[in-house]
Amino acid sequence: MVGPLAVDGDHAAGDYYLPIATTEGALVASVNRGCSAVSAAGGATARITKRGMTRAPVFRVAGAAEGAAVIEWVEDNEDRLAAAAEATTSHGRLQSVTPYLVGDNVFLRFSYHTGDANGMNMVTIATREAAALVEDETPAELVALSGNLCSDKKPAAINAVEGRGHTVTADVTIPRETVERRLDATPEAVETVNTRKNLVGSAKAGNFGFNAQAANVVAGVFLATGQDEAHVVEGSNCITTVEVREDALYASVTLASLQVGTVGGGTDLDTQTEALELLGLAGGGDPPGTNADAFAEIIAAGALAGELSLLSALASRDLSSAHEELGR
After folding, report:
1. Which among 8, 24, 129, 184 is annotated as catalytic?
2. Catalytic site residue 323?
3. What is the pTM of this model?
4. Structural domains present in the chain
5. pLDDT tens figures, 115-126
């Protein structure tokens, strides 16, 4: 457990202890140090800017003209597709259908609000019914219910740009004295490391994630709370920004495709349920979706704490000695 971590979100508000399951000894201490700095600065602000779980079936058509006609039908009948999809679930709601034509292939990227569930099974079942309607009403032939434009459990630019699950940003402004005392670094040094490592280095490497270790926090929390651990691929899709502002350090993380839920799947296991109960987020929220939204805000704040601590350890050249002392 790390914390307390102060969070000021639309759905999460207060001090939280974040459960992390990991075999990396230095990680818990590092994130805990970041939580201390964030909380001392008044906490992290967190906001969800978009959510939607996606499933994108691929259909075969005769060619470009037929594909364009299928897309026109889809755009004219989105209400019928929504009715077919939503008949399979009491919580899922179809938000949009985005078509793509590639030669004789038509991809339809369905996006759903899934309440407090991660919703992968929910959207797959719902999309099956919508796809059947497309086959009944158009010349398109379903090839695969998932055409990889979703894109599920794989690094994908579409998730970085359009998002998948929750798109959430957390930020904090930390006074210089707090940075120096709790993180053993200066704002200027942390900014320099972030620019040259997370931005320039990531760009040169062709990374989708422009961050130091967001996946560490996402993976640890996922395992502790019963999330689908393969979705760490999308959860590592994070951009970290750092800037010196007068006599303080501003830092933010934006996770484009964080996929979490507080009901269903592994969240029903005893230990994982207990971890969610410690956060006050086990089960469904009222109204539906609020627990999952709060959870996403807290994870983003935890990722921010982890970024601050690791960047500071690099800036102060303490990374290797910390692992020597704590990582065994």
Report:
1. 24
2. yes
3. 0.95
4. 2-50+165-326 (3.90.770.10), 57-144 (3.30.70.420)
5. 999 999 999 999
